[in-house]
Specification:
alpha/beta; elongated; 6 strands; Nucleotidyltransferase, domain 5; 6-stranded mixed β-sheet
């Protein structure tokens, strides 16, 4: 008795093609995020960057802090986060500092904040060319 291998080979070739297509999509949707500066990687050498930003997502809105410790509250617009206002503030900061300036953004959120809001803030940071994003949580 002979086993017909043609259907198995057809299935295998379809699976390989599917996996190759999916592998390219994972690279397109990738955002490089560093671990939280308070985490295990904190022992690594700390660079002295001219600009360090902190964005905290709370149930009431955004809190934007800079290297000097000055905090700016951006309250929610109704029930939604005011992403437009955050985008405008980050544009202003980017215009103040040159694009060559190393900038680190520490992004933290409370437990009740939806993941889509965290991703939206990452997208706003990348749009304004802030690439040194690290993610943590509010203790």
């Amino acid at each position: 008795m002979e086993i017909n291998l043609v259907p198995f080979i057809d299935l295998l070739s379809c699976c390989i093609a599917f996996l190759m297509i999916v592998a390219t999509w994972t690279q397109i949707a990738r955002i490089d995020v560093a671990p939280s500066p308070n985490g295990p990687a904190a022992e690594e050498k700390q660079d002295e960057d001219p600009l360090k930003l902190g964005i905290v997502l709370t149930s009431t809105g955004y809190t934007l802090t800079d290297s000097s410790g000055a905090a700016l509250q951006i309250p929610k617009a109704g029930v939604e986060y005011n992403a437009t206002e955050l985008d405008n503030k980050l544009k202003t900061i980017r215009q103040t500092f040159s694009k060559e300036t190393t900038t680190k953004v520490n992004l933290t959120s409370e437990d009740g904040v939806a993941y889509k809001n965290l991703i939206a803030v990452m997208d706003i940071c990348l749009k304004n060319e802030f690439t040194g994003i690290s993610v943590g949580s509010v203790n």
